[in-house]
Amino acid sequence: MLTLILIVLAMAGLLVVMRREAGALPTLVVLTTTGLAGLLLGSPLLGVLLLLTATGVAAAGLPVLRTRWLSPRLFALFKKAAPRVSDTERTALEAGSVAWDGELFTGRPDWQALLDVRDEGLSAEESAFIDHQCNVAAGMCNAWEIARESADLPQELWDYLKQEGFFGMIIPEEYGGLGFSAKAQSLVLQKLSVSETLMVTVGVPNSLGPGELLLKYGTQEQKDHYLPRLADGREIPCFGLTGPRAGSDATAIPDTGVVCRQVIDGEEVLGLRLDFDKRWITLAPIASVVGLAFRLFDPDHLLGEENDRGITLALIPRDTEGMEIGRRHHPIGSPFMNGPIKGKDVFVPLSTIIGGTEMIGQGWRMLVECLSIGRCITLPSGASGTARYALGWSGGFARIRRQFNVPVAEMEGIQEPLARMAALAYIARAAVYQTANTIDHGEKPAVPSAILKSQLTEFQRQILGDAMDIHGGKAVTLGPRNYLGIGYSANPVAITVEGANIMTRNLMIFGQGAIRCHPYVLEELAAKDADDLAAFDRAFFGHAGLIFGNAARALTQGLGLGHPDVPFDEVAAPYARDISRLSAGFGLCADAAMASLGSTLKQREMLSARLGDVLSNLYLASMTLKHWHEGKQVEGEAALLHYGCRFLLGRAEQALDELFDNLPSRALGRLLRLIVMPVGRRWRRPQDALTREIAQNVSRDTPLRSDLLDATWQENDGSRDNPLARYNDLLTTQERAEGLYRQVNKAYAKGKLPAQALHPEQRVEAALAQGLISREDAAFMREREAEVLELLSVDDFAYDAFVADSSRVLRHHPA
């Protein structure tokens, strides 16, 4: 019995020390104390074993001892086994900054640090712009006209976008721009996402265009010339990066620039001769200035001794001789301006290099740093806005569409996708807003940008698919009345561009995060490169302490012992505690995968993807909790928080489960499962009760629906048809209408109305004639049914309306 007590005490003490990552000395105290107790109290064998273990810990754990024999041997092994980091990878790893993503790698995330990144809100000017200018711009769009009739935005909209500074949101006021925060930029794009073409047209110059590159790296002369012209729309920019053989692997660009001399107007000019072939360049057909990425060579050593000077960026006017520009690609579902750019023997002076000659060879670093912010804003904001428009339309449609004498919103088959749409929209809005807030606080979130881009555009794919299912025939019949189908068909664009989701999920999120966000791996690699044994010793044994700490935290918290303190209310606290638990499990699994697979983990993309999925879901859940903590917490929102967090944590556990099943070492997989999930999975699909509650709330005029539709275009001034506004108007009188439906249908069922009164309008008139409803109720229902029928209707066209060549029309019935 005494032996068992001592074993329990030793294990408990070690777990406490490990959880706190207290180091070798406290571990020695625990082992020595329990070992001596064993010798003195009649358990000599246990006492000897514990003291021998203490001796081993002292030799391997105390710096004064281990640096003499152990650390040099480990360092030699590490230098042989550590993966080689290429210059390209190192540039990507060093770009951007680490914030909450790094906390999740530690296994002990500091929640207060997350909450300390306060949301200062929007300025009065930003709020006014979103409320007025964005509404005007959204009201000048019609998806059908843009996609099928003009293949472009209306001229008056282009003029308005330039006049009001939409293309200069990120440009400081001193250069004529709006100088908006990242949060304001995101909310602008969310409102404009009522039209995919409009959102992309405004979003790209503010994220992936040369504007941000000029702001950060341009010479003063370049800034003074271009930034005011970009801000007011005199210059429309594009950026040429990708090509036929360089898409996701943008560093493999085969486009070249060669340093040379050329006589211009009788004067010899030092410049670059460019050959390039670019594809998929947004705004290229109408751009007046082209940002260009290419590999620069200096074979004649006109600038220095190096031949290969690396990836370099230049800014080239459209009318530069030899550049072919103006043709268009046809992006699926959305005719936003996109096209190829070619050039053969195009000469430009050195002054066109962004940042001047000092930035030669720095192009990849420049791009990675700018892309990390742009990928956090443009497509995630578009996905969030699209999600909430689709939810608003679908909730309204499901409530006014009646089958079997009830709104289809009352059917559980419709409630399930409605609730899922609402939860994903809620998560997306929280994640993109809170990440934009970190940007406003100076962060450059590299890993979160990959998470948001891939995860939120996948949410968008799910949401649009659900919306199509709910709408049925309304959405599969194209025409001016179909507000959903064109955006649905354009969704693959968001999935594919700015780093295809397959690549981002499988290679980038964990591949970059494992080194960039890990507390010690980057330090270990740096120590290897510098051949610094002391730095390696500190990093390696700190890393070892983290592994033991995460194992202890994952196990004890998995058993329900030692919950961490979290600064949330009783609704959110259980989820924050479980994110901490899964963070410890994730950190342990990440280290186990890297240690067991080494450099081959790069090729095990499915394992890397699952680890990335865990990180992604924990990040999204954290942002959702922060949004709840700082938000208004409207009636019904708690159900949405419960649904969203259970959904995300369930996905995180599923990814861990699959990781354990697929690690090459089955013993390691079983051991990790035992530590990380000692009592099995905790989170399953959200309950049906939550689904029903959420679906009811988003298909009625409720505070929750209003909150979810914030920052969407809901104006109904008559200038353009706005289905969302029309649905909202109908929902405000839904209770009155449902009472009258029940009254009239009950009378019909009892035979009080003519059997041939099959249409709602006929039953209303018959009920009025029978004195069953008042004249006011009849007038209300006539007006309402006319509006409902219009919203349920689809378009039809002339027989030959879709044939471009009238000579090819087949007349199956010539008469």
Question: Could you give a short description of this structure?
Answer:
It holds the Pfam family Acyl-CoA_dh_N. Pathway: Lipid metabolism; fatty acid beta-oxidation. With about 800 residues, this protein is α+β, with helices and mostly antiparallel strands.
Outline the structure in words.
The chain is an alpha+beta fold. Helix content is 59%, strand content 8%. It contains 33 helices and nine strands. Strands 1, 2, 3, 4, 5, 6 and 7 form a seven-stranded mixed sheet that branches. α17 (412-440) runs antiparallel to α18 (446-471), α26 (637-662) packs across α28 and α31 (734-749) crosses α32. It is flat. The termini are far apart. The model has no long low-confidence stretch (mean pLDDT 91).
Element layout with pairings:
Layout: H1 2-20, H2 24-40, H3 44-61, H4 63-81, H5 87-94, H6 100-106, H7 111-115, H8 124-131, H9 133-139, H10 143-150, H11 155-163, H12 182-192, H13 196-203, H14 210-217, H15 220-231, E1 237-240, E2 256-264, E3 267-282, E4 289-297, E5 308-317, E6 323-325, E7 338-349, H16 363-400, E8 402-403, E9 406-407, H17 412-440, H18 446-471, H19 473-476, H20 485-496, H21 501-516, H22 521-530, H23 533-558, H24 573-597, H25 605-630, H26 637-662, H27 666-676, H28 688-698, H29 703-708, H30 723-732, H31 734-749, H32 760-769, H33 775-792
Parallel strand pairs: 1-4, 2-4
Antiparallel strand pairs: 2-3, 3-7, 4-5, 6-7, 8-9
Helix pairs in contact: 1-2, 1-23, 2-3, 3-4, 4-23, 5-21, 8-12, 12-13, 12-16, 12-17, 13-16, 16-17, 16-18, 16-30, 17-18, 17-25, 17-26, 17-28, 18-20, 18-21, 18-25, 21-25, 22-23, 23-24, 24-25, 24-26, 24-27, 25-26, 26-27, 26-28, 30-33, 31-32, 32-33
Domain Acyl-CoA dehydrogenase/oxidase C-terminal: 361-501
Pathway: Lipid metabolism; fatty acid beta-oxidation
EC number: 1.3.8.7, 1.3.8.8
